[in-house]
Amino acid sequence: QVQLVESGGGLVQAGGSLRLSCAARGIIVSIFAMHWYRQAPGAQRELVATITSSGNTNYSDSVKGRFTISRDNAKNTVYLQMNSLKPEDTAVYYCNTKVIRDYWGQGTQVTVSS
Question: Tell me: the pLDDT tens digits for 12-68?
């Protein structure tokens, strides 16, 4: 059974940093593409960052240059380092992977105050 458990969210002032973690069980994160999504109140869930099995990374235009996705194969964990945070980054952040079907974590709240 695949389980994704996010942590690391919180309240931070604009310009600050947070690092989100996604601990995976039931899959090996280095074999599958792993994604971070976010969903702000009243908005659709949007893809923020991807790391492929080969280690290639992709980012949405809104976070490019500020966020970094990475993984630790030994810990079977994916990270999202978020720097220069803006109030518009406020959202619930979700870890995701697709193994026949979509798997989602429970989400972690990130709130950026101005």
Answer: 999 999 999 999 999 999 999 999 999 999 999 999 999 999 999 999 999 999 999
Cα(27)–Cα(2) distance, integer angstroms: 6
Q: Report the C-alpha gap between 52 and 31 in whole angstroms.
A: 8
Give the 3-state secondary structure of residue 30: coil
What separation, in Å, do the N-terminal and C-terminal C-alpha atoms of the chain show?
Answer: 40
In the numeric block, which tokens belong to residue 34? Answer: 């792993």
Closest CA to 75 of 5, 15, 17: 5
CA quadruple 57, 60, 61, 66: dihedral positive or negative?
A: negative
Parallel, antiparallel, or unpaired for β 34-39 and 91-99? antiparallel
Cα–Cα distances in angstroms (integers) from residue 109 to residues 1, 53, 86, in the given order: 25, 27, 14
Query: For residue 97, what are its two tokens?
Result: 């992977």
